[in-house]
Design brief:
Number of helices: 8
Helix content: 10-25%
Number of strands: 32
Distance between the termini: 51 Å
Shape: globular
CATH topology of one domain: C8orf32 fold
Length: 562
């Protein structure tokens, strides 16, 4: 695999350090500013000039998260035994299996390597399972591999674009597992090599859409690829399939699992008398209601019943129990795992869709775990009050990285402390998966207070009986530069009462294009927040409006600044 290398002239634009534009005095300002400074090469120029790298990889791509430059396919490869970028654990063999356990404790900081730009952390798709045996061991039903073509086409309508960058230890003529960005993804262009030397490889996948790469000789190579994937793979509206439409895919369970699932379905109150859409919603609500526990369920029944009826467990326990229950209804389902998280994919009659059941850990260990975050579709299913979503693990990691960057740049940084961020909502996770996979963080506990007037949740459009939060946001500093802290403050209230210890997401809204999330802060006991968030160095220069939003908590509803 190889390709031509082209280059083009780049312009270096010099401008004043900053120009702030306010519509009025600071208290009433719309917090609009123009970001100016000497800039590095602009990846948009690469798109305009159709520049390409080795393997005909485009030098930059337009994504929902902005224009991102390509990884360098000639970047040096770390030596064996050093940190491996995005290489999966060697235990993740082509015939890997998953064995459920009763360790429902939560971990704290979890390892994670992010191979994709924009970042999908913590949802790197590494191991997918679609079959279960009488011992409740999960595996892949169709282990035969099929060619995964390198299509060489442009992303189609409804598709998202990503770069993948990973170091892989090839085994001569044997498939080596590599991560994918999600179900139904396809490779548009790819290059494998060592420095400037190309290495010939081919890509294959099995029946559960696990990805592998094969080489003619054993060697350590860097693989860089451009990927396209339907946006629907990341969630969104589940649709209204019929049971017949779901029946196009094989769904089988051993007799003991079918018998055990009858007890769980009775407890949930779900059956095939429900339309598939309603059945899936009932399952998601039930399994998102799990909680981590220092003591797992006693081994009085089989492990599936122990976990499902006790509602104890973290991400891997929820996903395993959801899988067995959904399959017993005839709903095609997969369990997906990586080193830090687990979730499910459910077939809606047309495509596989990711469903996060919660249970993510507090933070991810490696600085490389996050980059420009991908913005997935809105979650169509409700979360129990006080829940912690899988994406929040990556959000907290980014915030901690910004805090460290702020401390380095300014001495003190003035950022919200890690404890303040963590106090925004209950978090928890679980132990290490027996097959080298995920850990998880818990669902929050406690009942929602009595209704105070229905509203629509700002993120998922579902009915919400909490009082809507009101947010203010004020730009404090007059110095706004890429790679430097942006100092903001404000307050969050609901029904004129402070919203204490809620997470506030800060975003920048350009005059044209998509809103860019840049970080999060947490309110204090009085509902006030203040801190600095480091702007990504990849931010495009231009005019921005600062936006603050919150998901709220058990007392305060969701809201967004005017």
């Amino acid at each position: 695999m190889g390709g031509r290398v082209r280059s083009g002239a780049r312009a270096l634009l010099l401008a004043p350090a900053l120009a702030l534009l306010f519509a009025g005095p600071p208290a009433r300002a719309r917090n609009t500013f123009v970001l100016h400074e000497p800039i590095p090469p602009d990846p948009r120029e690469d798109i305009a000039l159709s520049l390409s790298l080795d393997g005909d990889l485009p030098a930059a791509i337009d994504t929902r998260s902005g224009t991102v430059p390509a990884p360098d396919p000639r970047r040096a490869i770390p030596p064996a035994g050093a940190k491996r970028d995005a290489v999966p654990d060697r235990s993740a063999a082509p015939d890997a299996t998953f064995q459920p356990d009763r360790d429902t404790r939560r971990p704290d900081t979890l390892p994670y390597d992010e191979p994709f730009t924009p970042s999908t952390a913590p949802f790197k798709r590494l191991n997918a399972y679609d079959a279960v045996d009488a011992a409740y061991t999960l595996s892949v039903r169709d282990k035969g591999v099929h060619i995964l073509p390198v299509a060489g086409t442009r992303p189609g309508d409804g598709e998202e674009s990503f770069y993948g960058d990973m170091v892989v230890d090839l085994a001569a003529l044997k498939p080596v597992r590599i991560p994918s960005v999600g179900p139904g993804a396809r490779i548009l262009r790819a290059r494998a090599g060592v420095g400037s030397a190309d290495v010939t490889v081919r890509f294959v996948k099995d029946g559960a859409d696990n990805w592998f790469v094969m080489g003619e000789q054993s060697s350590r190579v860097r693989v860089v690829m451009e990927i396209a994937i339907p946006r629907a793979a990341f969630g969104g509206d589940f649709g209204s399939p019929s049971w017949a439409e779901l029946g196009v895919l094989p769904v089988t369970l051993p007799p003991n699992a079918l018998r055990a699932a009858e007890q769980v379905k009775t407890q949930i109150g779900v059956s095939r008398r429900d339309p598939p859409r309603e059945a899936v919603a009932k399952l998601v609500a039930y399994f998102r209601g799990f909680a981590d526990a220092d003591e797992g369920p006693p081994p009085s029944r089989d492990i599936y019943l122990d976990l499902a009826l006790s509602k104890k467990g973290v991400c891997r326990h929820r996903s395993f129990a959801f899988f067995v229950t959904a399959m017993s209804l005839g709903i095609p389902t997969r369990v997906i795992t990586n080193e830090a998280h687990a979730w499910v994919e459910v077939f809606d009659g047309h495509a596989w869709r990711r469903i996060d059941l919660g249970g993510a850990g507090r933070t991810l260990r490696d600085a490389e775990s996050t980059n420009t975050p991908y913005q997935p579709p809105a979650d169509p299913f409700r979360w129990p009050s006080g829940s912690t979503r899988g994406s929040e693990m990556a959000d907290r990691t980014r915030q901690e990285q910004r805090e460290k960057a702020g401390d380095t740049a300014n001495g003190s940084g003035g950022l919200a402390s890690p404890s303040a961020v963590a106090s925004a909502g209950p978090t928890s996770s679980g132990g290490v998966m027996s097959s080298g996979g995920p850990n998880a963080s818990p669902e929050g506990r406690g009942d929602r207070p009595s209704p105070r007037g229905p509203q629509r949740d700002a993120d998922d459009g579902q009915a919400d009986d909490r009082p809507r939060a009101k947010l203010t946001v004020v730009l404090v500093d007059g110095q706004v530069r890429r790679g430097m802290p942006l100092h903001v403050k404000g307050e969050v209230t609901a029904e004129r009462e402070p919203c204490a210890h809620v997470m506030v997401d800060i975003a920048l809204r350009p005059g044209r294009g998509s809103e860019v999330s840049v970080g999060a802060l947490a309110t204090d006991d009085k509902g006030a927040y203040e801190g600095s968030i480091v702007l990504p160095s990849s931010m495009t220069l231009g005019a921005y409006e600062i936006v603050a939003r919150t998901r709220g908590d058990t007392r305060c509803g969701a809201g967004v600044s005017p």
